[in-house]
Amino acid sequence: MEEIVSLYQTVNSEEVISWVRVGAVNDFPENAGACIRHNSRQIAVYHFARTDKWYACQNLCPHKMEMVISRGMIGDSQGIPKVACPIHKKTFSLEDGTNLNGEEYSIATYPVKIEAGNVYIGFGD
Amino acid sequence: MKKIIVVGNGMVGFKFCEKLVNHPNRDQFEVLVFGEELRPAYDRVHLSEYFSLESADQLLLAPLNWYQENKILLQTSELISFIDTEAKKVFTHKNESYEYDYLILATGSSPFVPALKGVDKPGVFIYRTIEDLEAIQNYASKLKEKGRFNAAILGGGLLGLEAANATKELGMNTQVIEFAPRLMPRQLDQSGSDLLQSKIESLGLKIHLGKNSKEILGEDGIEQIEFTDGTSLQIDMLVISAGIRPRDELAVKSGIRTGERGGVIVNNKMETSDPSIYAIGEVALYNQNIYGLVAPGYEMAAVAVDQIMGGEKLMSPSIDMSTQLKLVGTEVASFGDPFIETEETTAIRYENKQRGIYKRINISKDGSKLLGGILVGDASDYNSLFQLYINGLKLPENAEDLILGQRGGEGKSSFGSAMDLPDTAQICSCESVNKGTICGAIQSGACSDLKEVIKQTKASSCCGGCKPMVVDLVNETLKSLGRTVKESICEHFDFSRQELFDLVKLNNTSGYDEALDTFGKGHGCEICKPVMASIFASIFMETANKQVAIQDSNDRFLANIQRNGTYSVVPRVAGGEITPEKLVVLGQVAKKYDLYTKITGGQRIDLFGAQLNELPLIWKELIDAGFESGHAYGKSLRTVKSCVGSTWCRFGMHDSVSFAIRIEERYKGLRSPHKLKGGVSGCIRECAEARGKDFGVIAVEGGWNLYVCGNGGATPKHAILLASQLDDDTCIKFLDRFLIYYIRTAAPLMRTAPWLEKLDGGIEYLKKVVVEDCLGMAEEFEKEMDGLVEKYACEWKEAIEDPEMMKRFRPFVNTEESDDQLVFVPLREQKMPKPW
Ligand code: SRM
Ligand SMILES: Cc1cc2nc3c(=O)[nH]c(=O)nc-3n(C[C@H](O)[C@H](O)[C@H](O)COP(=O)(O)OP(=O)(O)OC[C@H]3O[C@@H](n4cnc5c(N)ncnc54)[C@H](O)[C@@H]3O)c2cc1C
Ligand code: SF4
Ligand code: FES
Fold it and tell me: What does the pLDDT look like over A65-113, one tens digit per residue?
């Protein structure tokens, strides 16, 4: 378990070492999430079509360690974009991964960029 | 310390205790209460609800520990058999004695049982205590098992009709026998009675008027009742409700003065012939009358407490006997002097046989004062009329507007608002609470909502008749303070679900984004999205494939997510009936995809452990074999459970399986505020547990009984009878109306039982909407349901036939591989997810 958790660390855009292309914009659903796999990581990617913003975070829900967060519903809370885990509806900020229910665990987030109709995720390794 | 003994722990005896403990000088007294009944005081007014309650405890006026907390010594199951007025002592039936300084007689009354030959036969009952009702219920169910269904009530007064409704709800064919030429002779005139009679008869109860009973016949139990006119009726049980007799036997025996026709004589201080003994409630003879209602009894309790405490409170010189009731689903009210017709008065009558309404008001000749009246079929104006009468308010110019409404105008009520009443206007007569007290409770900041106001002032806590007015007063007062409470579903929509439903319908809103833009704000969340999805589905019957992104996660993938992120597959097995061929297919599919298999609590089969990408493959095979989505993931119709019914079962009365399948096929795919479950049982043994469902249908002689608003789960509730002896089509019609009404008005994730609890007027109101069509919307509801049924589509079939939709079930956007993180462990001969 420890191992799998330590795989996911938040990456800020200035820390990105490699931008990985994960698909075309059209491959991702609007206003919902989808999952991509890169090496041993599963990353959830969300397209907020209303604001045309993209977010990415770990697919692993830190609550019960299940690979499910990409299948959660998204929305905003006081303007903060968020995702609710489909299993127990714990909610996390997609801006910085903080747990919006006030619990300890949080999730790692990753920068996303769109170039020429393609979606890229920034990793720190 | 002085000692008070209260004999009788009924409604009024309890009220005495309650008023006493709230008195500042309460500590100067020791209080000892004797009650003959098993239980502490309970709400006799709502006695008939006993049949639909889970436990009789729900009727208690206060739990046992209330007495302890208030230092009242209560001895139940203890009859006082003698009072030694000289020595100031009471003796129990066990001959134990207790001393008193003040004695309160609150022994109530008992049903009057005429001295008919044969009244002692088994099957003859009275209707006064919980035990009486228990006995009636037991006897009725034994009769029903023997295929005997005929009950009669002796007495067509207020209580008799209530008893009639109760035996009818127990599934008995009920008839009412009344000596007088009309029903409720004390409250209604002939026209009112005629109307009530035809209403009641249309609901399947038979009425016999002007019948003088002679003898009850039968071998082991009652079988027949004979009348003096030579006619007779075949009946299997009889409930006697022919008036009340004050229980003054204790007083008589102890030498306290009683009236010629019974009752302990009291003055306006509630004192009896012995100055240290008071009598209150139905045993007290005040102004040469016994008052069979709680309100006067409560006033007597208040007077007695005040007198004992040295106060000067006196009983009102005249007692108001106004009543408002719902009898066999019909509203009836009578107030003031309902019959008066003299030189100085005029009666204005309105009768509409088609709609089953009769109204009469008696006004003074000059048209300024309301003296009394009768309302049958529609008593919605009762509270306002009663206010005009009891407070002697001046009537509007055209008094007929009071019962006809203002014609030609905007349909505004001619009373104005409850807020126009004077502060002294008595709103709750049971608890004597006036308008000033109710509004003051809010204005002073002591209370902030209806619940708190009821708790503090006790207004509408008794018979509940004044509740609509209390609600108005509370809301209006809150509004005047700028404190309206708004129900909004989340930060994105400042509306309740019902308001959103109407907004979407009125604006013909095409989708979630448009809804956010036109009447919402922000970008939505996991609360409002599924609510809106449900509303769109209920209005347009769109499947979960139409606006995928707003579906709850389970609906988005058309399956229930499991603890490890895999999914379960539950095909529909309508009514629980499945062919061997289809069973084989389920087995083969489960085997092929290595799925854990289990029979569910809903009479179908669940295949667990499917991975996201496997879902469409599995469903393709199932659909090819003739299966459809079971919507186990949706807030929608789940199953309609059936028992085997008359096709195979030796007790079956109708074909419950066919009917369950018909119902399940009709409502499959219907989305609603919460999940919906149904059941159909072939007889009253109820093997389908239909009364544990949102709607349940039970076969009885002559048709189906339809029950609604039950559930199992965390807060189990038995469904309540909505209508009885229906044929198939009428049952479906009522179900259509019920379901649409629920779907339109319930809050998100509110099942039918709590919805009914919140519905103003409760089951009686629901009956009016569904059965009597008081909103005039029945046809619209049925059409709406027809439209939804017509548009049904299996969403799994849609999904597997559309390559675009299939993309949704890919675990990863950027690779075709499946998720290798899943770990299963063996479980018996199957598997399960690795535990957390
Ligand atoms: C599969 C099944 C249990 C079983 O193995 O038998 C089941 C499984 C679940 N039930 Fe249930 N319920 C199942 C029959 C019942 C029954 C029995 C019945 O229907 O006769 C009840 C009580 C009756 C009732 O609903 O009134 C029942 C009362 C609940 C409740 C409590 C509802 C309530 O109003 O209190 C929930 C929670 C909820 O819905 O909010 C619930 C929720 C759930 C959920 C959906 C919880 C969840 O969100 O994951 C479970 C999904 C398990 C899964 O992973 O697929 N389930 N659940 C049954 C499926 C029946 C079917 O064929 O569709
Ligand atoms: C089915 C039904 C429906 C009703 N509906 C309405 C309604 O809608 N509106 C309305 O205003 N009223 C209604 N009433 C009437 C109302 O219930 C009575 O007016 C009220 O209960 C009277 O209260 P009470 O305390 O005087 O008598 P009770 O409630 O009868 O209490 C008297 C108690 O004293 C006990 N007792 C008697 N003798 C002794 C003794 N010697 N020693 C010890 N204990 C003794 C009795 O067992 C009983 O428990 C209804 C009554 C019934 C039965
Ligand atoms: S009772 Fe609880 S554990 Fe069992 S299936 Fe229902 S929700 Fe799951
Ligand atoms: S596993 Fe995500 S909230 Fe529990």
Answer: 899 999 999 999 888 999 999 998 899 999 999 998 777 889 999 999 9
Report yes or no: A7 and A104 within 8 Å, Cβ to Cβ: no
Instruction: Report d(CA B386, CA B322) in Å as an integer.
Output: 8
Query: Hey, is B96 helix, strand or coil?
Result: coil
> Which of A25, A50, A71, A120 has the most B C-beta neighbours within 10 Å, making it the best mutation to test the interface with B?
A71
Residue B19 forms beta bridges with which residues? none
| Min Cα separation A36/chain B (Å) | 5
Phi then psi for B249, rounded to 5 degrees? Answer: -60, -40
pLDDT greater than 80 at residue B820: no
Ligand 4 atom nearest to A66, measured from its CA: 1
Tokens 């389970």 sit at which residue? B554
For chain B, how big is the Rg over CA atoms in Å? 31
Q: What is the residue-averaged pLDDT of chain B?
A: 91
The span from the CA of B608 to the CA of B593, in Å, is 10
| First vs last C-alpha separation in chain B | 65
Does the model's pTM come out above 0.80?
A: no
How many Å apart are CA A41 and CA A123, to the nearest integer?
Answer: 10
ipTM of the modeled complex? 0.72
Whether pLDDT at B406 is above 70:
no
For B295, the token pair is 């309100």
Ligand 2 neighbourhood includes B263 CB (under 6 angstroms)? no
Instruction: Determine the residue of A5, A63, A70 to mutate for testing ligand 4's pocket, defined as the one with the most ligand atoms within 8 A of the Cβ atom.
Output: A63
How many beta carbons lie within 10 A of that of residue B367, not counting itself? 16
Selecting from A67, A73, A78 the residue whose C-beta is nearest the C-beta of B553 gives: A73
Cβ–Cβ below 8 Å for B523 and A32: no
Q: At residue B611, what is the residue type?
A: Q
Q: Is B712 in the pocket of ligand 1 (CB under 6 A)?
A: yes
